[in-house]
Amino acid sequence: MTTATAEAQGLSFELGETQKMARDLARDFAVKRLKPLAQKLDEEEAVPRELYAEAAALGFFGIMIGEEYGGLGLDLVSYAAIMEEIAWASAAYQVCLTVHNSLFCKALTSFGTEEQKKKYLPRLARGELIGAYCLSEPGSGTDAGSLKTAAAADGGDYVLDGTKAWVSNAGFADIFLVFVSTNPAAGNKGISCLLVEKNTPGMTLGKKEKKLGIRASDTREISFRKARVPKANRIAAENEGFKVALAILDGGRIGIAAQAVGIARAAMDEAVSYAQARKQFGKTLAQFQATQMKIAEMSMGVDAARLLTWRAADKMQRGLRATKEASMAKLFASEVANKAATDALQIHGGNGYTREFPVERLFRDARITQIYEGTSEIQRLIIARETLAEAKQPA
Q1: Measured in whole angstroms, how far is the alpha carbon of residue 38 from the centre of its chain?
Q2: Phi-psi region of 125 (alpha: psi -120 to 50; beta: other; left: phi over 0)
Q3: Quick check: helix, strand or coil at residue 123?
Q4: Using an 8 Å Cβ cutoff, are 297 and 328 in contact?
Q5: pLDDT digits over 154-177, tens only?
Q6: Average pLDDT of the segment spanning 242-249
Q7: DSSP letter string over 30-82?
Q8: Less packed terminus of the chain by CB within 10 Å, N or C?
């Protein structure tokens, strides 16, 4: 699907050849490498770095990085299709890729200087560097504009003090995108964005969080105490960081929407397989109408959520504002994922409540999709705000 075609006709519901190739490459990796390991990764609550290196060798750490910097140079719809396939096998594994691609790398490609891009993007695309994103704090999550981590100018450096919370990839990331307050009196108009390399003196990693789901994803607090970061590592102008955060959050929500579609599809696949094999009262579960109704809802939900996700990705790819579409995709897909995981577990009965069957993990993994990258409540507020604003526009 070319940009010209998309502009003339709107989003095609069929992937183009390049997009299909990207999806199929991810699907092959998901089926052969990730799915057999998903339960083990969940039990051990970690992903070996060498397993990420396999994804890097396929180009999945530079999906949207331009070819001139060593990336695949693919579009957002391809990215969404890849993320769905990876999440179908392991949502916890996919977290690393979506944070690295849609949050860290997107910020650098969109707002970084040419010097910063040349320094970091080739290594990021090869997976030699893994990025993390630090916006939330112990006292500010949804209200990101009230963050307290401060960066005081001192000659050619900023001196950082504060704590970041819920940092995905924290335990193994090599470079961090950190949002700081450079003018506290200005609120969200006084926030800046810095690249902070690991092992920066004064930077300390907290303990790994023990989570309900996506257990293999490494999540921690990060503290800064008089940590010095060169001003040359600032992304965008001073006090323009909140605009960076808002600009890349839409892409982040598309990544989580794709994750939710992958979880929902995995739950549906497990439910269908189990229902066709398990017998009760002389019939397979799949022959009972009650089971068929659940499977029909799953199938419809997965398709609708995927199309919403691709629509948002396509619109954003064309350089159009897609805040409403990204929020709709993230909200709907996350609710579909949770409903599908719940119904799949119910179809499994008592077996689904044990760790012997994947639906137990899917049930736990699905829950986070309604929380991170903006809660379901926040998505509804965004959708309502955008809808009301559109209604005010002249016909």
Answers
A1: 18
A2: alpha
A3: helix
A4: no
A5: 999 999 999 999 999 999 999 999
A6: 92
A7: IIIIIGGGHHHHHHHT---HHHHHHHHHTTTTSSSS-GGGTS----HHHHHHH
A8: C
Spatial distance between the Cα atoms of 48 and 64, rounded to a whole number of angstroms: 24
Strand partners, 157: 154, 230
pTM higher than 0.85: yes
Question: Residue 26 corresponds to which tokens in the numbers above?
Answer: 């991810």
Alpha carbon of 269 to those of 230, 243, 306, 341: distances in Å? 50, 40, 16, 11
**Any idea what DSSP says for residue 143?**
-
Instruction: Express each pLDDT in 48-93 by its tens digit.
Output: 999 999 999 999 999 999 999 999 999 999 999 999 999 999 999 9
Q: Note the pLDDT tens digit of each residue in 87-141.
A: 999 999 999 999 999 999 999 999 999 999 999 999 999 999 999 999 999 988 7
Measured torsion, CA atoms of residues 119, 121, 123, 127, in degrees rounded to the nearest 10: 160
CA–CA distance, 10 with 314 (Å, rounded to integer): 9
d(CA 230, CA 39): 42
Q: Which residue type sits at 251?
A: G
- 257-293 pLDDT, tens digit per residue, is 999 999 999 999 999 999 999 999 999 999 999 999 9
Tokens coding 221:
């607090």
SS3 call for 322:
coil
Provide the annotated active-site residues.
373
54's tokens: 């396999």
